[in-house]
Each structure stands twice: as C-alpha cells, then as structure tokens.
Design a protein that fits this description.
This protein is mainly alpha-helical. The chain has a domain of about 130 residues. It contains 10 helices and no strands. Helix 9 packs antiparallel against helix 10.
Length: about 250
C-alpha cells in the first residue's frame, strides 16, 4: 500500500504518496468544509453511499483525481511488466496457482503485514508518527472521500500491478543467474520506487523482501501469495489512514 508512506503499506503508499506529493491539491480544513457544506446541502460528517465522506463538489473532484492518478500509475506498471516480460521471455502468470493451499498461505502471509500496519498506526515512536503524518498529508484527504469499493479495487490493482512487475517479472528474470541476487536487486529497486523519504524506502525494501520470500519459499514459487498479501495489507492500511483522517474533520 497498493499504496503511500510504506503502500501500505505499506507498499502501495510510497508509490501513490510520491506521485500525489508532486501534484497534491489543497484540502480545506474542517471548518471550511462545514461552511462549504452549508451551501451545498450536506454536513461535514455526513456519510454517503459506501461510507464516503463527501461534503462538497471539490471533495468529489479530489476523489476522482486521486483514483484517476492511482489507476493510471498502477496501470502503467502492468504495461511495463508486460513489456519487460516480453523482452526477457518471462511469463509471470506461470507462477500463479489458484488451489486452496495457495489461498491459505496467501491469507497467512497477509497477517504479519497487517500487524505491522497496525503497529505503525498505534505506535508513538517518532518514526511511526512521521510516517503517519506523511501518509495523512499526501493520501488522507483523498482516501477519506473514497467509498469502500474504491479502496478494495485500488488495493487489488496495486497488489497485482506491483507484484506482477517486481516479483513476477524482475525477480524471476534475475533468478536465472542468482536467486539471492535477484531477491536483493529486486527489492533495492522496490525501495527506490517507494523512496518518498529515506525511512520509508528502508521500510518498503524490508516489506518487499518479505514478499519475495513468501513467494519463493513455497514449492513451486507462487505469485498469488505476495499479490494477496500486498493487496490485503494495502486495504487495511487505507482503512487506517481513512479512519485517522475522518477524526480530523
């Protein structure tokens, strides 16, 4: 999180937060929202379909811009994965298994990442506070306007696109020469893509290392596991951001 940052997050959060940080729109404060809402017909705490906190036309526009930006960015990663897969003769879909055992492992692999997200959401450690402030300032206003299905679909898109590219194509192409080297180089690149801050780059790199390991430690390697873990963690992280942002309004 996928996702700002850490995606997750915290995987997606670095990518999205980095993009949004460059084109972020100003978000009105809670008092301004209330004043604007009086003329538009809804209060600042009104809950619309799916639990979205949309109070003004500007809020709806912010939501649309966020989803369009995220969709374009993550969709670009899918196209890049397809191109690189063609160039290096790697078919990432061959590493996907859909059996019940795979889904069980995928669900179990999601739990440690969600636990990490929860720890970062609750902790008063300075690093955790700094990350929360970054996530809220870059992603909070837009995420608060999203309906639950927006976040589910976005998390799935992030999980599929980033894992398809990094674990499915880059890692498996490099693994022809060295599995250890492939894991290290892939996640150095993964950290670089999420390098909104140095601390977040390190966190993203460690999370990426975990995702690489849960893929290759089963026999045969299964891309479904990191995809589900990544998407599930991002969805949980978006929920944490949304909950904190709504408390500020």
């Amino acid at each position: 999180m996928g996702g700002g940052p850490a995606h997750g997050r915290w995987c997606v959060i670095g990518s999205l937060a980095g993009q949004i940080h460059r084109v972020r729109q100003k978000s009105p404060c809670g008092a301004c929202r209330m004043r604007n809402a009086n003329s538009w017909g809804s209060g600042c705490n009104d809950q619309l379909g799916g639990g979205a906190l949309v109070t003004t036309p500007e809020d709806a526009m912010q939501r649309d811009q966020f989803l369009n930006l995220a969709g374009a960015f993550q969709g670009g990663l899918v196209l890049l994965a397809v191109l690189l897969g063609w160039l290096f003769d790697v078919n990432p879909w061959q590493y996907v298994a859909w059996d019940a055992r795979s889904w069980l492992w995928a669900g179990l692999a999601t739990l440690p990442l969600c636990s990490l997200s929860l720890l970062l959401d609750w902790s008063e450690w300075k690093l955790a506070r700094d990350l929360r402030e970054l996530w809220l300032s870059t992603l909070g206003p837009a995420v608060a306007q999203c309906r639950w299905w927006d976040l589910v679909l976005l998390s799935l898109l992030v999980g599929v696109s980033e894992e398809l590219l990094f674990r499915g194509v880059v890692q498996m192409a490099l693994a022809r020469w060295s599995v250890v080297g492939a894991v290290l180089l892939t996640n150095a690149l993964f950290a670089l893509v999420h390098a909104v801050t140095p601390a977040y780059a390190v966190l993203a790199g460690l999370v990426g290392l975990y995702l690489s390991l849960v893929m290759i430690l089963v026999e045969p390697p299964n891309l479904l596991i990191p995809v589900v873990a990544h998407a599930g963690c991002d969805l949980f992280s978006f929920w944490c951001i949304r909950r904190r942002q709504q408390r500020l309004l």
